[in-house]
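A quick aside before the break. I want you to see a complete sequence-to-structure record at least once, exactly as it would be stored in a machine-readable document. Don't worry about memorizing anything.
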Amino acid sequence: MSDLLERLRGRGWRMTAQRRVVAEVLDGDHVHLTADEVHSRAVNKLPEISRATVYNTLGELVTLGEVLEVSTDRRAKRYDPNAHRPHQHLVCAQCGTIRDVHPTGNPLSSLPDSERFGFTVEGADVTYRGTCPSCAAA
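That is the input. The structure line, written in tokens, reads:
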């Protein structure tokens, strides 16, 4: 059973066939699929699943805090099941590939007090941009 499925079962989330398929599609360390990609893969496992069901299930998973909604630039939102392990993202500026990265250190330590303007800073979202090996070779 995937980590996401285990977490959802532990929360007592009602596991319908449609919800299970969406959770299975999202399983993996570096999964960052769009809603349409989730739907396309879910249809391969459960042909009768509707796009609305996929969108609704993704929305529920985000609300529960079990999946992160990731937006990079003006591209479609992507869904990241790695919601419980702090990480940042590495994004290819050409093809949009996203990888989870786990740099050491605290990103907040680079923000001096003079630049916090009295805010109590609780977190930082860091996105590294570059070119993936596939795009660099093309």
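Two observations worth writing down. The CA atoms of residues 108 and 123 lie 7 Å apart. The beta strands are 33-34, 68-70, 78-80, 88-92, 98-101, 127-130. We'll return to this after the break.
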